[in-house]
Amino acid sequence: MRPSPVLRAERSPDSGLRERRDLRSRARLDLLSRSGGPVRYWPIALVLGLVIAAVVGWRLTRPAPVPPPVVAYSEFARALTAGKVREILVDQGGSRIVAELKAKELVQGHVVATVATSVPARGVSVEVLERWAASGARVRVSEHGGRSPEQVLQLLSFVVLVGGVSYLVVRQRGGHTKGRFLPTPPSRQLTLKDVGGAQEARADLQDVIAYLKDPARFEAMGAKCPKGLLLVGPPGTGKTLLARAVAGEAGVSVITAAGSDFNEMYVGVGSKRVRQLAEQARKAAPCIVFIDEFDSLGGRRGRPNRSGEEEVTLNQLLVEMDGMGGSEGIVWMAATNREDMLDPAVRRPGRFDRIVEVGLPTAADRLDILKIHARTAKLAADVDLERIASLTVGHSGAELANLLNEAAIMAVHEGTGEICARHIEAARDKILLGRVRAGVVVSQSERRLVALHEAGHAVVGLITCPEDRLHKVTIEARGRTLGAAHFAPDVDRHLHTRRYLLGVICKALGGRAAELVFLGPENVTSGAGGDLVQATSVARRMVADFGMSDEVGLVSADPSAHNGAAPGSQMLSQIDNAVRALIRTEADRAEALVREHRAVVEAVADALLEHDVLSADDVIRIAAAHGVEVEQALSAV
Ligand code: ATP
Fold first, then answer.
1. Count of domains in the chain?
2. Residue 179 lies in a domain
3. Is the pLDDT score of 1 beyond 80?
4. So what's the pLDDT on residue 171?
5. pLDDT by residue (tens digit) across 514-571?
6. More reliable by pLDDT, 247 or 634
7. CATH of the domain at 394
8. Domain membership of residue 10 as a residue range
9. Among 31, 85, 91, 196, who pairs with 369 as Cys (CB 3.0-4.6 Å)?
10. Which SS3 state, helix, strand or coil, does residue 299 take?
11. How much distance in Å is there from the Cα of 185 to the middle of ligand 1?
């Protein structure tokens, strides 16, 4: 239960993947070594700092010269005619004249030996200088073009400062491309032994490995290596890992880049980087060029929000790929989660024409991945990797790696010396439900409300959605929630029935139904916000994408079914009505179930108030004690 907007952390296969996406990044144990290394700014900053300190120090230690009083030109001319001037200095490029007098005089209240006057710029010609010299005064013209040494130093430091800042900006913005895209040598690569599961992807990549290992064998048959491969799949499924493993297996180096490396606001920088990448690849051949997050480089041209510069960069990439004959031994690999965003031109034969699907791991794949990551972990005898694999339906490789890593961290904190089953269980709860927030103070009335809400989810979910097994119900404040009824699918499911999806909606609305039944319509809370998001999104997909509503029928709202355009307003309003009707029906069903099993919901809520956390077995026992049998077997999860 979230403090304000959301009350639950109950999960469905659809929502689970999305909620866990951000965890993937934490599991990136094998981050790509980015070429180029860190930019060293400190020497430049040091030089700039020294120059500025020198100027400031010089100014502070040097007594500031008192400027001579400025007099009218007529007074200066009078003094010159009277023979009182010993020396004339033409300063500031001829716009200022400084006259040294033969004897000190009282000028503007001060006794001075020097006065200054202004003349129009370039107003002092050679004839004037000769005339002044003829009057007996010594005439000098400033050698610094009118600037004092102090001004010259200031100007110099300004130039150095501007130069330094410009250099930093250019370097930061990518004008300075030296050192980018350096190949990672084969000695630092992984092999396919480091990749769990992904059997189909491995099979697809065998050709590339074989070609890169022995190109002559293929060339003798006139065969060319596939030039570009596109690894497509959800985040954290091991696409980057596979690219590195292919390079490792073939014993070639790999040059890595990210699509965003080429996105620059400065004209020409993106295409320059593409050229540089291709140049590095030619030098390092045979090699693999791997571009991660490829959609930000290879996105559809002409799309709104896509700048002209991005299109030029993509064109440059296509030109570079076309310019390679296929015999250089350069294999381009790119990874994306958004294949639909790519420009059709990048998938043309001769470019990224081989699609390698890297999907979420199956139960056997998950076991494989867990075994790989357990190689370096110290597991206790009670850890059953097969059981963990069966409980982690929908988890990506990155999430599994993260699970073991979190468990290892917990074991270190506990000082147990090995990772036990309870660490893995706690790590799973932490990842799925968030860290326990011991400091959160929840009033008794709010605790009861949360308990009723979660009991509603649990009981309605157990009845309407037996495919998703109840894991546990809790009213501990964790992460951003105040409580959760956590369900998880027990097997990999690729298709969902209408009955199951309606059950998911009903289960999501079970919390609000319990509030309504026990507290009345005036006392329902804001905590069901997240439940409504989940219910609405499932209902919308059922209506708009899966043809599961009579009102809209078997018409898809997907833009690709409407020549890329959004469906018409009449259809959109039909969809809205159908979604609303579907949710209304399921909300009524949830409410009816809570009323029917009111005693069970209340007993589960009371037990939650007493124990904070209930296992699926506890809930099922309470239900059985009230004469309600649910399908889920005891100790299933
Ligand atoms: P993204 O699409 O977000 O770039 P990705 O598909 O490229 O993600 P990787 O970066 O390859 O995912 O994987 C991240 C981490 O997850 C890896 O470093 C590894 O620890 C783990 N991992 C993912 N898939 C596997 C796998 N099949 N076998 C072993 N470890 C894996």
1. 6
2. no
3. no
4. 64
5. 999 999 999 999 989 999 999 999 999 999 999 999 989 999 998 888 887 888 899 9
6. 247
7. 1.10.8.60
8. 5-34
9. 196
10. strand
11. 20
Give 326's pLDDT tier (boundaries 50, 70, 90): low
User: Domain check: are 545 and 629 in the same one?
Assistant: yes
Which tens digits make up the pLDDT trace of 394-424?
899 999 999 999 999 999 999 888 999 999 9
| Closest atom of ligand 1 relative to the 365 alpha carbon | 27
**What is the distance between the alpha carbons of residues 593 and 457, in angstroms, rounded to a whole number?**
11
Test site for ligand 1: of 240, 400, 406, most ligand atoms within 8 A of the Cβ? 240
Are 337 and 220 spatial neighbours (Cβ–Cβ below 8 Å)?
Answer: no
391 CA to middle of ligand 1, Å? 19
Indicate whether 100 belongs to any domain: yes
Cα separation, 469 vs 38, whole angstroms = 48
**Residue 467 and residue 545 in one domain:** yes
Specify whether 53 is located in the same domain as 162.
Answer: yes
pLDDT confidence of residue 303 = 67
**Residue closest to 334 by CA, chosen among 358, 315, 313:** 358
The DSSP string of 71-83 is --HHHHHHHHHTT
Query: Per-residue confidence at 150, pLDDT binned at 50, 70, 90?
Result: low
CA-proximal residue: ligand 1, atom 11 (nearest):
238
Ligand 1: nearest atom to the Cα of 358? 6
Neighbours of 56 (CB within 10 A): 11
C-alpha 514 to ligand 1 mean position (Å)? 41
Q: Return phi, psi of residue 108, to 5°.
A: 50, 40
Q: Looking at the structure, do residues 534 and 564 belong to the same domain, yes or no?
A: yes
Q: Which of 29, 32, 190, 237 to mutate to test the pocket of ligand 1 (most atoms within 8 A of CB)?
A: 237
Asked if 293 and 394 sit in the same domain, the reply is no
pLDDT surpasses 80 at 310: no
Burial classification of residue 415, based on how many CB atoms lie within 10 Å of its CB (0-12 exposed, 13-18 middle, 19 or more buried) = exposed
- Find how far residue 335's CA is from the centre of its chain: 15
Distance 370 CA to ligand 1 centre (A): 12
Instruction: Kindly state the tokens that stand for 338.
Output: 């958004």
Which residues form ligand 1's pocket by a CB distance below 6 Å?
24, 27-30, 195-198, 235-241, 292, 335, 337, 369, 372, 397-398, 401
Ligand 1 pocket mutation pick from 193, 241, 295, 362 by most atoms within 8 angstroms of CB: 241
